[in-house]
Structure formats: C-alpha cells, structure tokens
Amino acid sequence: EIMTESELIAALRQGSQSAFNEIYRLYAKRLFAFCYQFCKSVEETEEIVEDVFVKLWLHRASIRHDDTVRPLLFVIMRRRLINAYRARVSSPVYSSYREMAAARHADSRHADYQLEYDDFVRRLHQAVGELPATQRKVFVMAKLDGLRNREIVSALGLSEQTVKNQLSLAVKYLRGRLEPFALLLLVAFAS
Fold it and tell me: How far is CA 45 from CA 65, 133, 141, 187, in A?
C-alpha cells in the first residue's frame, strides 16, 4: 500500500519504522547527491545524510501536520552543511596549519594552504575509513571529537588499555598512510 506524504508524516510522528524506512528510500539518494556537491567526500556526505535522518527520527514528534518531508529534510541538511563548514573553517587544526605554513612560506597565498589542507582532510577521512571498526571509533572519539580516554572507555565499554592500544595502532597506521603530510599530522594530532 502506497502512502501519501501526509500519511507518511502522520505515521512517522507515531513512531512508525516502516514510514521512516519509506521516507529514507524516497529521499536518501537525493540528499546524498545534493550534499556531495558541497562536501566532495563520500564519507562526509554519508555521515551528513545519516545525521539528517537521525535528526528526523529523534524529532519526529515535533513535525507539524502541515509539514512536507522534502523541504524539511533539506532544511535539516542545509543546517548540517553550514555547521560542517563552520567547523572546518574554525578548526584549530586549520588555524595551526595556516600559522605553520605562513612561517614556512611567507609569500604563499591562502588559497594554496586551503587546497593543501582540503587534500589532507580528504586523505585523512579516507585513511580513517580504512581503519578497523574499533580503531576508527576510538580515533574519531579521541582525536576528532576531543574525548578523553575515560570518556571513550565509558562510551564503548572497552578497557582503558584497549583504548590506548587501539588509538596507538590507529595513529601509527595513519602516519604511514599520510606520510606526505607529516608536518600537518604533527600539528593536527600532537598530544
């Protein structure tokens, strides 16, 4: 049975997993295509699209009866893209890198730094995606989300020694994969 959009919203508001799955089926590819134009990274795009649907599910009860799904999803996506852009531009890693690069090449332009930084971020996300699942989770939580080992232990239910070992293995792997960016890696993940 095919549901209208208003029926899908009504069912979603009531917590219907099948309505949510149908909305996902209808809109996930469109959101991915839209988002990818801005991110240029499959991993980041997938993460943002996933976040959009998680937010839709978490806030399903607050959706108004007169809302339509497509504009609602794209508003959530737009906000998420703006936040991702702000985080990237105001990243302490990016600021530290610009300062370091300015000291090395006083006559280089900001655009060159941005291109090199964007290439680093793209390769970093790709390399992080290649890590085994536990190493990836620990690395992201520790180095990208800024959580302490104790917080990671609580969140993942691992021992503190396991967290330390997984983080060490992840950093060692990433250093090998991102050797051309050794100086930027040092600035990004010095701790």
Answer: 29, 19, 19, 26
Whole-model pTM: value is 0.47
C-alpha span between 20 and 56 (Å, rounded): 9
Tokens 């290439």 label which residue?
Answer: 119
The CA distance from 84 to 36, in Å, is: 13
Q: How open is the CA angle 75-65-12, to the nearest 5 degrees?
A: 80
User: CA 123, CA 118: separation in Å to the nearest integer?
Assistant: 9
For 15-69, give the DSSP string: T-HHHHHHHHHHHHHHHHHHHHHHH--HHHHHHHHHHHHHHHHHTGGG--TT--H
In tens, the pLDDT along 93-144 reads 555 555 555 555 554 445 555 566 677 677 777 888 888 999 988 888 887 6
